[in-house]
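Co-fold these.
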Amino acid sequence: MHDGAAATIGRYRPTGFPDRVRVIEVGPRDGFQAEAGWIPTARKTAIVNRLIGAGVPQLEVTSFVSPRAVPQLRDAAEVMAGADRSRGARLTALVPNARGAEAAAAARVDAMVVFVSASESHNLKNVNRSRADSLDGFETVCAIAREAGIPVHGAIATAFGCPFEADVATEAVVEIAGTFARLGMIGVTLGDTTGMATPPLVTDRCRALKAAVPDLEISLHFHNTRGVGLVNVYAGLTEGITTFESAVGGLGGCPFAPGATGNICTEDLVYLLDACGVETGIDLDALIGIARDVETLIGRTLPGQVMKAGPRLATSPLDAVATACG
Amino acid sequence: MHDGAAATIGRYRPTGFPDRVRVIEVGPRDGFQAEAGWIPTARKTAIVNRLIGAGVPQLEVTSFVSPRAVPQLRDAAEVMAGADRSRGARLTALVPNARGAEAAAAARVDAMVVFVSASESHNLKNVNRSRADSLDGFETVCAIAREAGIPVHGAIATAFGCPFEADVATEAVVEIAGTFARLGMIGVTLGDTTGMATPPLVTDRCRALKAAVPDLEISLHFHNTRGVGLVNVYAGLTEGITTFESAVGGLGGCPFAPGATGNICTEDLVYLLDACGVETGIDLDALIGIARDVETLIGRTLPGQVMKAGPRLATSPLDAVATACG
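Predicted complex below.
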């Protein structure tokens, strides 16, 4: 990067932004689970390990869910076993119930992630039980995790809105986070399941949670369904949030809704953070290479933009085909 | 919108944001010009008039450029003649030279837009002359416009970076804007031709121009090439900028680079502004309908997200196929 641009970044770092952010890669779980075609275990492990090699500090590697519910992740234990532990990346897994918690503990995950929806109808639809029943079940999971010395994070789906109920009350989110804290969890992730988060809602949730559960680390998990995923990250950074989830290439789009993107894209997120002078420890060029290979692996175009355009200062030769179509 | 959400927007309107923004639709010019297949004049006029009907207050309708250079816009005069003047929308056109200025004046455009690149190599590549020669040419255009009583806006391409020269100095942008002001132009548009703008660079340019040319209205024109187009808008809003250019559906992607998006998408922009409590006067639902029809018209998938996902609070029936793939 030119000195001039670096100086500009230094001078105009947006107000409130943290110096450093932890990017949590969720593609191997939230992305791969949405892929209908079987991805061989060795391929999954290879992607996980290349992401670790690129400097990603934390990954949601898989989900210890019923193989019947999510056949794509039936190799959860094998993928965990193949993951590179040498670089100290934190390897987490989604855990839907006690059975999953035991499998995750056996696989020596660094943290378990449990999840419940902020809206009753979405929770019923998603896991076929009430929110109260989900929260009850977390007690058992937390007991198993405690026994194994493994911390637990709680994730709240539909935290910014529900596809069935529309707006979701801040209080519903705060109440669930309070239960997480009482159960001894160490963090709360706000999931924007169907892309309904907006900057004012991000500000609202972050401030409410900081006040109500100050001991829980807040992570934000946005989908780019309505094109404003990274704007929501920006709003979260303004509130001093330091943990964001994303998927390489923007994996996680619903294969049944072509063009509708899923998770915000890790390379685009890291590109934005780099551009704003926020450290991630992640090698953007390496990430772009992985995203391109993941695209080949799953055989469809991914929504990531930086993986197509390349880094910002990759200049073209002057005799190249005109680049300025627009 | 629920009262709760409206109250949240009111409470958490981001710092510095203006109450109202003027969205300038550039799809009929910057978008259509990138389409290889001929779009019949009546179709172009119909799209322009539906956009006006949706409440778009200003449109870059066409370009009075040589039909040899841009065959798609050879019907510039006819499209202007067919545009609906009854709603008071401001109709502008791009004007590359004196000949174009005379044609634009004859077509009674409400404003002419001239353009030059901030970087010498891009200007040479784009219009085959030096920046100095481009600026010299604007004197004639401005004289013709003055004679016709038509205001002139100046646009600066590669204002945030150049594909051939990488970073562009703030001073290059400021100097050109100074010439615009001396020539009597009323506004300056910063064009992010190949998607190199970042939030700190937006802050830098906006502050430098406000100091150097306080009488020029600043407009921002971002491309979403690296996924951060709307984040750049957000940074501009924070600086109090009130004029943004965008293209319906995200038109303007280079057809030779599949998947690489062009202009930021008008519906996604209006969705974000609505979500932040910034007035535009534009009907989002109408815009979504137009974007979907434009997609059909040009026969390829457009990058707009809201046109696929629908408005935020469009709830699904509970018996719908599970929407939460991710």
